[in-house]
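chain and backbone:
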Amino acid sequence: FEKLGFGWLNKKTKSSVCLNVFNLTNSLSAKINTGGIYQSNDGDTLIVPFDGEASFINSKSFSNGLGLGLDFDIRIPMTYKSAESNYIQFLGRNLGLVSLTQAQTIYRADSVYTFTGFTFDQLLNNGDILSSPANILDSVGITKSEKKSILFLPGFLQVSKLINENSKNRLQEFYGIRMYLSSIYTPMLFIGANYRLGKNLNIGLNGSYGGFTSYRLGMYSSLKIRNWNLALASENLISKNGESIILRLQCAF
């Protein structure tokens, strides 16, 4: 999707609220609630318990939906020391809805199916199965439909304690909770520490639990030169199932 927005900014606290107009180019989703496959003792029959669906927009148009959404970054000061201010951040991104202008194609299955296979006569002589995809779908018990609907945007919420970049303390802690608006995402708790090596150089280490996985360990480093900021990070140092490398270059005008 693409978005265009306007909003309000507090220069002192760097808090902001932005209302966005969204253009949806495409959408694809799949969900399997339960599934399995079993074979009979004779080896000639498959039993498949299955409950799930998949949907997508079958259109090449640039715009297939329009909607409204909200971004916000609210920072509330909290004082650990009288001479320094720290902030609690309430962060939200892409919170809104999109109304489709093109219908979604939806494939759905919710039952227990028993298959004995197609006969040679069906495959070679009649040709009906191969010539008609609809016949194949009917044979395996999958229904197809088309529907215009309203979709939730892939929203993001986070509440966290931020570090103070102007603090005299070299070592500072941060922590919080993060959540994507997805049924398969578990709210993620994280905690970490930031250490300032020099005036413009920081390194950090953090651990987290939740999200799309369980435990994760990450680290980062950032270098600030005038209006430029270069950062290198990994959010997944110890997992055997995935890797994470993030390189970011920012320029502040």
Observations:
- The chain has two domains: 1-162, 170-253.
- Residues 1-162 form one domain.
- DSSP finds three helices and 17 strands in the chain.
- The two ends are 26 Å apart (CA to CA).
